[in-house]
């Protein structure tokens, strides 16, 4: 079976390509000419892997990449909390999905589309509530333009499913794990800041909740969706619901290092975020922290993956197990010391 993976050079995409090759699939990795391909397996060592160059915003290149494929994994996305030009979120995350759906209509060989959405597309959850796939974003407020773009794209994907397109929609949580240090691997970045003493305290009041998903579990969920996912269905590929305070405490326990002893208040984080954005506009380097990031931290994002467990056999590891895999990798790569 020949599969196309968009966003193949990304954190999730690289892991997905490796696992699909192990499954015996012939993988066409759709990458931009400027992409860093370090996360992909070697072409010379993997006869089942080929590269297709282009961009999801460039329809002709995408259409050519889809030709002859039976499955499309649409994992390409622009994942950043802030950009100086927010229109890029919509050209990639919204128009890119539209292009994939249009390519499906034109290419007759495609049997199934596996679309990687995001828990952000469903919106934040009320305090104390763990939501599932039935939650719909209220669209009254968005913490980030990324969130807005994924919510718009989600409506397009759901409409495509209702129109009969063979699409399965997946909603990963906060993806983390060893691999590429992209903006999407936010847990790795925060741990790097924490262990290098650039983030000496807890973030906010420590009452935040996120659903943390190890990248290998999310990949397994994608492959299960290809094999078992019901057409038109939506599946949350989330994991343990915890706070970043829990992340820092577990990391301290695993590494036998001291826990942070104070909390950095939100007003201080917002001030630092504003300053970081001003500096970013001058030097052109995206900031780790921005006001939209702080807005995300002020809300709850707790989700249940029971449906994926029941229908896909999804089996996410605990946050402790995931960090026990991730922290030694960060140390061996020289990103942190403990």
Outline the structure in words.
By secondary structure, the protein is an alpha/beta fold. The chain has helices at 11-22, 59-66, 87-93, 95-106, 145-162, 186-195, 215-228, 244-255, 266-283, 291-297, 306-312, 319-332; strands at residues 2-6, 26-31, 49-53, 71-74, 112-116, 167-172, 174-176, 202-203, 209-214, 234-237, 240-242, 263-264, 300-301. A seven-stranded parallel beta sheet has the order 3-2-1-4-5-6-10, sandwiched between helices. The N and C termini lie far apart (45 Å). This is NAD-dependent epimerase/dehydratase domain-containing protein. InterPro entries: Epimerase_deHydtase, NAD(P)-bd_dom_sf, NAD(P)-dependent_oxidoreduct. It comes from Papaver somniferum. One of its GO terms (molecular function) is aldehyde dehydrogenase (NAD+) activity.
Strand content: 15-25%
Instruction: Profile the largest sheet.
Output: 7 strands, parallel
**Broad CATH class of the domain at 2-184 and 211-238 and 302-317:** Alpha Beta
Order of helices and strands: EHEEHEHHEHEEHEEHEEHEHHEHH
Task: Compute the average pLDDT.
Answer: 94
Class of secondary structure makeup: alpha/beta
Low-confidence stretches: none
In DSSP terms, counting alpha (H) and pi (I) runs of 4 or more, how many helices?
12
CA gyration radius, whole angstroms = 19 Å
């Amino acid at each position: 079976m020949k599969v196309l993976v968009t966003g193949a050079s990304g954190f999730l995409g690289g892991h997905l390509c490796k696992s699909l090759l192990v499954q015996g699939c012939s993988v066409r990795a759709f990458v931009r000419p400027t992409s860093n391909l370090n996360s992909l397996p070697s072409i010379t060592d993997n006869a089942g892997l080929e590269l297709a160059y282009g961009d999801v915003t460039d329809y002709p290149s995408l259409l050519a990449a889809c030709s002859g494929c039976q499955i499309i994994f649409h994992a390409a996305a622009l994942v950043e909390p802030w950009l100086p030009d927010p229109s890029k979120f919509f050209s990639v995350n919204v128009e890119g999905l539209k292009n994939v759906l249009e390519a499906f209509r034109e290419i007759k060989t495609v049997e199934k589309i596996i679309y990687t959405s995001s828990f952000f597309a469903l919106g934040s959850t009320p305090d104390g509530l763990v939501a599932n796939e039935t939650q719909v974003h209220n669209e009254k407020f968005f913490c980030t333009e990324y969130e807005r773009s994924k919510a718009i794209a989600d409506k397009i994907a759901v409409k495509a499913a209702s129109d009969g397109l063979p699409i399965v929609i997946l909603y990963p949580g906060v993806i983390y794990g060893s691999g590429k240090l992209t903006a999407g691997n936010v847990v790795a970045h925060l741990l790097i800041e924490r262990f290098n003493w650039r983030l000496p305290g807890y973030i906010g009041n420590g009452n935040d909740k996120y659903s943390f998903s190890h990248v290998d579990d999310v990949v397994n969920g994608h492959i299960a969706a290809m094999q078992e996912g019901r057409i038109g269905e939506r599946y949350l590929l989330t994991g343990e619901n915890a706070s970043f305070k829990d992340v820092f405490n577990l990391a301290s326990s695993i590494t036998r290092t001291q826990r942070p002893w104070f909390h950095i208040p939100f007003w201080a984080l917002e001030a630092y975020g504003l300053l970081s954005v001003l500096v970013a506009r001058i030097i052109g380097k995206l900031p780790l922290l921005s006001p939209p990031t702080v807005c995300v931290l002020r809300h709850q994002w707790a989700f249940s993956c029971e449906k994926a467990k029941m229908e896909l056999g999804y089996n996410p590891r605990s946050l402790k197990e995931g960090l026990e895999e991730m922290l030694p990798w960060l140390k061996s790569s020289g990103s942190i010391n403990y």
